[in-house]
Design a protein that fits this description.
- The chain is of the alpha+beta class and 308 residues long.
- The chain has 2 domains: 2-167, Ribosomal Protein S5, domain 2; 172-298, GHMP kinase, C-terminal domain (Alpha-Beta Plaits, 2-Layer Sandwich).
- The protein is built from 9 helices and 12 strands.
- β9 (261-265) and β10 form a beta hairpin.
- The chain is globular.
- The N and C termini lie close together (6 Å).
- The structure holds (3R)-3-hydroxy-3-methyl-5-(phosphonooxy)pentanoic acid.
- (3R)-3-hydroxy-3-methyl-5-(phosphonooxy)pentanoic acid binds at residues 15-16, 18-19, 84, 86, 126-127, 129-130, 184, 188, 266-267, 271.
């Protein structure tokens, strides 16, 4: 039997804009998904059919990379589903990791690309930020220009992403979850539509790209005040792109008096927000009083771990 595990992620800056080829910065978090796989006489996922739509990422990972006999696959996840914390990326990476471990060949670079292709084909349109962060762990920055610590590169039409490792100081991040699961694919499609129709939305995409690079620099020099201001502005621009939600506004407003900054994270439309703070308990309490489910997350250095 093979076992693999991969972390969830938090996008600090750049969600949605990254799908257009703009920069984004994400960190792996200490919530993980585990996948177990062993040979079996029929295909099963958690005892159910591989054809079940809730296993779309697992099925695509199998179709793209496995030509062996049927498997029994089991998934155990600590990452809440559809809440912007990278549950689908983690299940994709961990499934690919378990399949690679069964084959006895784990090539992290190739696996990160395979994971992006799986997410792109299930979601319709995607960027490599989620799957790469889950695969490599620590913090990952995607940008157009080549810097130090390049992990890998990919092009899709006129979009080009160069993935790099980033090193961030230890921070306190508090997540507020709306409990509303909003699928990423339709939100990404709606943003594309808006950008094609509205020049202000196209400007917002470009500004988010600039914010990401400034935000990365602020984090690198430990300037959390500036990092927080940039988070707040990024949040405003994401609202302009139409991916906000009244509950996210409520939680962001509750968190801000105790935080350097707060913004939605991931696809939005529900899902989660997070705050950067030096008083995590105050932020957690404030979000819970506003009706959210809040938890403190730590950044995670370990990416994919897989063993036969
Ligand atoms: O909400 P999540 O975890 O699916 O994150 C989506 C991030 C987007 O930028 C909106 C899409 C992408 O593929 O980068």
């Amino acid at each position: 039997m093979a076992r693999a595990s991969a972390p969830g992620k938090l996008i600090l800056y750049g969600e949605h804009a990254v799908v257009f080829g703009e920069p984004a910065l994400a960190t792996a978090i200490d919530l993980r998904t585990e996948v177990y796989a062993r040979l079996h006489d029929e295909w099963l996922v958690d005892g159910a059919s591989l054809q079940d739509s809730k296993y779309a990422y697992v099925r695509r990972a199998v179709e793209n990379t496995w030509d062996g006999p049927p498997l029994w696959i089991e998934i155990r996840s600590m990452i809440p589903l559809g809440c912007g914390l990278g549950s689908s990326a983690a299940v994709t990476v961990a499934t690919l990791g378990a399949l690679a471990a069964l084959k006895g060949r784990i090539d992290i670079g190739a696996l990160a690309k395979d994971a992006f292709e799986v997410e792109q084909s299930v979601q319709g349109r995607a960027s490599p930020i989620d799957t790469s962060t889950s695969c490599h762990g620590s913090a990952v920055v995607v940008r157009r220009q080549e810097g130090e610590d390049v992990l890998w590169a990919i092009e899709k039409g006129d979009r080009r992403w160069l993935l790099h490792h980033a090193s961030l100081p230890t921070t306190n991040l508090v997540v507020g979850n709306t409990g509303i699961a909003a699928p990423t694919g339709p939100l990404v499609a709606a943003v594309k539509d808006r950008v094609e129709r509205d020049p202000r939305a196209a400007d917002a995409i470009r500004e988010i790209g600039e914010i990401t690079i400034d935000g990365l620099r602020a984090f690198e020099r430990g300037d959390f005040v500036r990092a927080g201001e940039l988070m707040d502005r990024d949040h405003e621009l994401l609202n302009l792109l139409g991916v906000g939600h009244p509950l996210l506004e409520k939680f962001v407003a509750a968190a801000r008096p105790h935080a350097f900054g707060a913004k939605l994270t991931g696809a939005g439309g529900g899902g989660s927000m997070f705050a950067l703070t030096d008083d995590p308990e105050a932020v957690r309490t404030a979000i819970e009083r506003a009706g959210g489910k809040a938890f403190v997350v730590a950044t995670e250095s370990k990416g994919l771990e897989a063993a036969p």
